[in-house]
Amino acid sequence: MPVAAMNVLSAWCGLRRARIWVSAAFHIQLMTDPFAPLSEEEFEELDHFLLFGVDTEEGMTMDMVDGFLHAIAVGPTTVHPKQWLPKIWGTKEMMPPMGSVEELNHMLGLVMRHFNTIIAGLGDDPREISPCWSTMAYDGDEREYDDAESWAYGFVQGMRLCWKDWQPLLSTPQGQAWFRPIALLGEDDYSVDQDELTRTPAMRSELAQQIPPAVLDMHAHWLPLRLAVYQREVAKSMQPKVGRNDPCPCGSGGKFKKCCGAAADLH
Question: Is 198 inside a domain boundary?
């Protein structure tokens, strides 16, 4: 099970607001602590719902969802729940088909709490993640092997929500090294030697064990950018509204629209 929720770095406030966005837009009232980790029973309940309660072939399993949410949590861009919740259900709708509003609120609450727990682990000192994937046993072999293929597939799908924003990292040798174990397990046609490198359970399990440190390295890489974007948004909210053609308040001498008003620039 994932680690207990604790304090989170201010750079992740935008992500922690995900539950608030859903609540405000759809009047969802979550009675439990939105940052409490799922109990074993709640985890199994959500797993069962994803398997049997969502009647779509494109819906995700729990291990896919866990990888998917990890990618959203560590990535370069804050992704609004309205963009990623439909991917979980495998529909075009933000909300899964449910029999009642109470059931709907409950299941969404479980998803958002699990997401918040992932974010909380990234804000711990030391940072940690506890990816949720299964282990496999085979006849004639006493060992159990990590089976992270579905998790890795979910992670890749989470990356694809803002794939272009990931490219500055993935275009570097270091970024390619971090992505490699995830891609070998979760991508189709990643490399010509992919089948050979994932041929046995032991090889796949070894790749799975490389994933947690790689994900933490990705998080550390993107954190300064996330923090800078967050600080810029806070600064904007505290300033009088500036016209696009007005001088930029940062003092650069340029127009606001070509300076701090441009999404790609950070000052």
Answer: yes
pLDDT, averaged per 10 consecutive residues of the chain (267 residues), comes to 34 38 41 83 95 86 98 95 94 81 90 95 90 91 93 98 97 98 94 93 96 97 86 63 65 67 49
pTM of the model: 0.77
Q: Which domain holds residue 166?
A: 10-224
Q: How far is CA 37 from the centre of its chain?
A: 16
Split into its structural domains, the chain has a count of 1
Residue 240, SS3 per DSSP: coil
Q: Is 211 within the bounds of a domain? A: yes
Distance CA 30, CA 105 (A): 7
Spatial distance between the Cα atoms of 235 and 227, rounded to a whole number of angstroms:
12
Contact 119, 36 (CB under 8 A): no
167: domain CATH number? 1.20.120
Whether 235 is in a domain gets the answer: no
